[in-house]
Amino acid sequence: MFQSKSRVAGVLMSIGAVTAALALNDPTPAIAQDREIVRASFNEDGSVSQPENWRTWIFVGAPLTPNALNGGEAAFPEYHNVYIEPSAFEHWRRTGEWADGTQFAKELVLLRQADDCEPDPDNGSCAQTSGQGFFQGEFAGLELKVKDATRFADEPGNWAYFSFGHQPEPYAETATAFPADACNACHEANAADDFVFTQYYPVLRAAKP
Ligand code: HEC
User: Fold this and answer.
1) What pLDDT, in 10s, does the model give residues 30-83?
2) Is the preceding omega at residue 170 within 30 degrees of 0, hence cis?
3) How far is CA 87 from the centre of its chain?
4) CA distance from start to end of the chain
5) Which among 84, 65, 83 has a CA at the least distance from the CA of 75?
6) Is the CB of residue 191 less than 8 Å from the CB of residue 184?
7) 60 CA distance to ligand 1 centroid (A)?
8) 59 lines ligand 1 (CB under 6 A)
């Protein structure tokens, strides 16, 4: 009895030693996995607060409308970096639908301007290490859309649209929903998947079941 117990303990110890040795040989350094996901939250007056860390959400695409190609002032200048909150991405990946509570952020980013990046007056491009083209510069605005069947029962598709300003950081702390014809109507008419422009987001198309 005593003997077999100690044999078991011995086996366990050697498994432990092998595991420890494997861990020591593992060339991948440990990376902390705990990133905090904070969705935009609503206030008592109905406004919404900034979602603090949208840049750690899932990045889905970056449509580009250079000012130079849009009469000097694009409606949404210039890169549009679009992110989806991760739990909503998981739901989309499993079902191909936007869950109630889905949040998207769209951050505007200007083209890079620098001494070594003189913008072409015709299209705003410049020559950089990888070639003639378009490169991201400074952040220039933040928008948000939220699907919520309870809060936005009367909005088409239950989607509401917000802007924290088209300006350099800091963006506004809070925002109130736009009327449907300011934002929602164009999405309803032109977006491929339930008000969302998945035709421009390869990451979401690839994840759709
Ligand atoms: C004229 C059409 C049009 C109007 C009006 C419009 N959008 Fe959009 N929106 C787009 C297009 C096209 C995209 C796809 C990405 C891109 O090109 O920016 C988009 C994408 C977005 C996204 C990313 C998620 C998605 O649905 O694809 C957000 C957030 C957004 N718009 C917010 C707004 C807000 C806020 C307003 C109102 C101030 C607004 N939009 C008005 C056309 C429009």
Assistant:
1) 776 666 778 999 999 999 999 989 999 999 999 999 999 999 999 999 999 999
2) yes
3) 12
4) 56
5) 65
6) no
7) 14
8) no
Length of the chain: 209
Q: In the block, which residue shows the tokens 């949404």?
A: 76
Asked if residues 187 and 160 have their Cβ atoms less than 8 Å apart, the reply is: no
The residue with tokens 């549009």 is: 80
d(CA 146, CA 163): 12
143 lines ligand 1 (CB under 6 A): yes
Report CA-CA distances (Å) from 73 to 38, 67, 90: 32, 5, 36
Amino acid, res. 35: R
Query: d(Cα 132, Cα 113) in Å, to the nearest integer?
Result: 14
* Model pLDDT for residues 116-153, shown as the tens digit of each residue: 999 999 999 999 999 999 999 999 999 999 999 999 99
At residue 24 the predicted structure's pLDDT band, cuts being 50, 70 and 90, is low
Amino acid identity for residue 209 in this structure? P
CB atoms within 10 A of CB 177: 22
Q: Kindly state the tokens that stand for 134.
A: 């378009």
200 lines ligand 1 (CB under 6 A): yes
Structure tokens, 138: 């400074």
CA-CA distance, 82 to 109, in Å (whole number)?
11
Report d(CA 3, CA 1) in Å as an integer: 5
